[in-house]
Specification:
By secondary structure, the protein is mainly alpha-helical. The chain folds into 2 domains: 237 residues, Fic-like fold (Orthogonal Bundle), CATH 1.10.3290; 61 residues, Winged helix-like DNA-binding domain superfamily/Winged helix DNA-binding domain (Arc Repressor Mutant, subunit A, Orthogonal Bundle). It is 60% helix and 5% strand. The chain has 14 helices and 4 strands. Strands 1-2 form a two-stranded antiparallel sheet. A two-stranded antiparallel ribbon has the order 3-4. The protein is globular and about 70 Å long. The chain starts with 9 loop residues before the first helix and ends with a strand. About 4% of the residues have low confidence.
Length: 321
């Protein structure tokens, strides 16, 4: 078993304990919101992962495609969303320690988008920033061996799964085993590995963390490549995972997840209600969704980029922009 080169910092070692403790606390309480969180975060996951790759569809358009509604957009971008939906629908079926499942996931994710979806590349590839090569991947003839070694280490190493998930993510992107779609699959696979550690990570997808910090994400990859050691990337990803967990506050009284996760659920509910009831006012929204009117007012301000108020203060209502 060949171990990938990485150095664990004192920060990383400390983060393992902190993340594990937070994840355990949340796992006890997330059951009540599981159904809502599953859909909301699947939408955000698909939107984030594809937006990183340049897909221009909005979260609401992704939701419409998920709900089977017609969306007017470039056919390739719609196909990317449909493929991602099909892939994440199979999330629980994928074994993160199986190369065969990795190829199955790629075939679903890249179907009708590239030739030979689900097969490792036969030629050279690189990552470019404009005309400048940022990373030249190993030769195609080495891919099978490199991936086999990586999965062997992932499956058999005694390092904590948090560490293995980060190292795998970095090494996978370095190898770049497929002709296209490596970013999408690499992020998905770290989420799969983390879900083996704790199911709560299905609701805190890596894709969203990366989307919110793309510049730092790519810098961590590049800095790790220069150092020939993924320690920098490990520190970055563990930091993002910790921040994502910490952003979710547990309500001791209700026993449910509040903060980012529950807030996102409420925002999506309000948006959906306004979309179906154009011109609805705060009181109507509050009564229909059983949300306190003060909370509705706060969320409406948060949604100001997506909705607008029309009419007189007492008789007007909210509309989708």
């Amino acid at each position: 078993m060949k171990k990938p080169p990485f150095t664990l910092s004192t920060k990383a070692i400390s983060m393992i304990a902190d993340i594990s403790a937070l994840a355990e606390r949340f796992a006890i309480h997330f059951e009540k919101n599981a159904i809502k969180l599953r859909k909301v975060n699947r939408i955000k996951t698909i939107y984030s992962s594809l937006a990183i790759e340049g897909n221009k569809l909005s979260e609401s358009q992704v939701e419409d495609i998920l709900d089977g509604k017609k969306v007017v957009a470039p056919l390739r971008e719609i196909q990317e969303v449909k493929n991602a939906i099909a892939t994440y629908d199979n999330f629980a079926k994928f074994n993160p320690f199986s190369i065969a499942d990795l190829k199955k996931a790629h075939k679903l994710m890249m179907s009708r988008l590239v030739k030979n979806a689900g097969e490792f590349r036969k030629g050279g590839v690189g990552v470019f920033n404009g005309d400048q090569a940022v990373h030249i991947a190993p030769p195609a003839e080495r891919v099978d061996t490199l991936i086999s070694n990586l999965f062997d280490w992932l499956k058999n190493a005694e390092d904590h799964l948090l560490i293995r998930s980060c190292v795998f993510h970095y090494e996978f992107e370095f190898i770049h085993p497929f002709a296209d779609g490596n970013g999408r699959i690499g992020r998905l696979w770290q989420s799969l590995i983390l879900a083996k550690l704790n199911p709560i990570f299905q609701y805190l997808p890596v894709e969203t963390m990366v989307h919110d910090n793309q510049h730092k994400y790519y810098k961590a990859i590049n800095d790790s490549s220069v150092a020939a050691d993924s320690g920098i990337f490990i520190d970055f990803m563990l930091g993002e995972i910790f921040k994502a967990l910490k952003a979710h506050k547990i309500s001791a009284k209700s026993g449910t997840l509040n903060g980012t996760a529950n807030g996102t659920v409420k925002l999506e509910e309000i948006l959906k209600y306004i979309r179906k009831h154009q011109g609805a006012n705060r009181t109507e929204i509050s009564n229909a969704l059983n949300i306190p009117i003060r909370t509705v007012s706060r969320y409406l301000k948060t949604l100001s980029g997506k909705i607008e108020f029309r009419g007189a203060p007492k008789t007007g209502g909210y509309f989708i922009k």
